[in-house]
Write a structure and sequence with these properties.
Length: about 160
């Protein structure tokens, strides 16, 4: 291999950063390096601190994905519809259902019309009383984002290796 600084032919060169550029150098020239360089799988060369930052970002993203896949539930969009249908199926009036779960009739009416988002406690009571599910898994927002791994990185994060 050839040292890109002094041109000496050496058995091994090391990739380092010299004044912002990634170069392969021999052992002697290594001392001119401002920092070691890190090569990514994609073949780009990063400053160690940038590589560290990207690692953290990757880690955060994975944690987020795990969180999203952990069975986190949110109120279904058609919750009011589900409540109304279940109540009618059971032949109950607004008042009957209200009595059953110790809520005012007006609360039932508001929830069924979508005017009121039921708090978690009320959702649980409704689910039990009507034997329905009002919650759904949170939709993973990460799928499209995950497709292009490097697209979220800024240009400045990368210092391209010059092609030989
Ligand atoms: Zn050299």
């Amino acid at each position: 291999m050839l040292c890109e600084m002094c041109g000496a032919a050496v058995p091994r060169t090391k990739l380092v950063m010299v004044e912002g550029a990634a170069v392969q150098v021999c052992q002697k020239c290594e001392r001119f390096a401002s920092s070691p360089a890190v090569r990514t799988k994609e073949g780009a060369v990063l400053l160690p601190e940038v590589a560290g930052r990207l690692d953290n970002r990757e880690k955060r993203r994975k944690e987020k994905d795990i969180y999203e896949a952990s069975g986190e539930l949110e109120l279904a969009e058609d919750y009011s519809e589900r409540i109304r249908r279940a109540r009618q199926r059971l032949g109950m009036s607004h008042e009957d259902l209200g009595k059953l779960i110790s809520e005012k009739k007006s609360v039932i009416v508001k929830v069924e019309s979508g005017e009121m988002t039921p708090p978690d406690k009320l959702v649980e009571r409704l689910e039990k009383a009507l034997n329905i599910k009002l919650k759904e898994p949170v939709q993973a927002a990460g799928e499209v984002r995950n497709a292009g791994n490097s697209q979220g990185m800024t240009l400045g994060d990368f210092i391209k290796v010059k092609k030989k």
